[in-house]
Design goal:
The protein is of the alpha/beta class and 370 residues long. It is built from 18 helices and 9 strands.
């Protein structure tokens, strides 16, 4: 299944007293998906919802149980005399608390996310068996009616250090295999502020970004995660006013090419550097806002699509009117891409009279946004 399919269906699975383990190729966004899922639960329920994160690969058995320390305890002996004795007790383990340092049981609803579960040591995994099934380890017990458990792992074939799974644990949780796909990535990327150029690159090079396979030889390779990392680097070198990358600066582009090779691997880096020429064929956003009827139109389909993405990335309620004027000069497919992306990025646009008036006259736009 895809993450976008799971997004609206995960809660009923968890609420039916089941823990889940998400298994996928590396770098497709499982961790970010869980964070977005929790944020969406907060938004739609209005509840106080907590998130605790365990990096299972970094845990030892002691981290799961807590350290044993002596504590003075009053007991009554056989003669009826109250005496003080030393008793060993466990300190509170880190997984019992949210990222805010609050016990997960104190929230209206909470999620314990066991990241890198597959990379955990066997002795650590053994202890989590009871955590997955009954939400407890030793004396530490979560309220399983409102604290839900999610694990995430890579596949054993991904050279990610995944250790052997044990059958008694497999039988205690639901195993969901996640496939990489562009639409799940793009839905996240719109909310995550990923640059339009890299969103379009992912759409046009699905076989590179979402292959779900490992390279034969070890080294940097392209996944949604490494592509987003590279996009952040390119953003740091972009023009602060226009967001354009320095395509005309040979020295700068040669430097960025090497960075790209060290992030997504040589084949993907070469295709990105070639594809970046598309941005030189798009009008600047400032020109679109200033002269929506007179600014030049891109000729290539890729350049038109990048223009639609870029406008959706930068439009707001103050400049929506001229941008709509410009988008009406493009074919309906590009206008639909713009409207859908813009509305998802900034819900305030849906309240503007210009946007509502435009969309209400076009059934395709209305359906796309809905």
């Amino acid at each position: 299944m895809y993450l976008r399919q799971l997004a609206t269906r995960l809660y009923p699975i968890l609420a039916s007293d089941n823990a889940v383990e998400l298994i996928s190729p590396p770098g497709i966004g499982k961790s970010e998906f869980v964070r977005q899922f929790v944020e969406e639960r907060r938004r739609i329920t209005g509840k106080r919802i907590g998130l605790g994160i365990m990096m299972i690969a970094n845990y030892t058995p002691i981290d799961l149980l807590g350290y044993m320390i002596p504590e003075d305890t009053l007991i009554t002996n056989a003669d009826g005399i109250t005496i003080t004795v030393k008793r060993s007790v466990y300190t509170i383990p880190p997984w019992f608390l949210s990222e805010e340092g609050i016990p997960l049981n104190d929230y209206d609803e909470a999620y314990l996310f066991m990241d890198e579960y597959g990379q955990g040591e066997p002795d650590v995994k053994k202890l989590t068996a009871e955590l997955l099934l009954n939400a407890q380890i030793g004396p530490w017990k979560l309220d399983k009616s409102k604290v839900f458990r999610i694990a995430a792992s890579n596949r054993a074939s991904d050279r990610s250090g995944v250790t052997k799974s044990m059958d008694h644990i497999i039988n205690r949780r639901i195993e969901l295999h996640i496939k990489p796909d562009w639409l799940s990535f793009d839905q996240w990327a719109m909310k995550g502020g990923v640059a339009p150029f890299f969103r379009l690159y992912a759409e046009k090079h699905i076989e590179v970004v979402f292959s779900g396979t490992m390279p034969k030889d070890q080294g940097p390779f392209c996944t949604p995660r490494s592509l987003v990392k590279l996009s952040r680097v390119f953003d740091a070198f972009a023009d602060p006013d226009t967001g354009a990358y320095p395509a005309g600066n040979d020295e700068e582009m040669a430097f960025l090419s090497e960075v790209a090779e060290g992030t997504v691997g040589t084949p993907a880096a070469r295709s990105i550097m070639a594809f970046i020429k598309v941005q030189t064929e798009t009008p600047a956003f400032e020109l679109i806002v200033k002269d929506p009827k007179g600014v030049w139109l891109p000729e290539r389909a890729d350049a038109k699509m990048l223009t639609a993405y870029s406008c959706a990335h930068r439009v707001d309620v103050s400049n929506i009117a001229p941008v709509i004027e410009f988008m009406q000069r493009l074919s309906p497919d590009y206008a639909t891409t713009f409207a859908k992306s813009a509305a998802k990025r900034d819900h305030r646009l849906m309240k503007s009279k210009e946007f509502l008036g435009w969309v209400s006259k076009n059934a395709a736009l209305l359906n796309a946004i809905s």
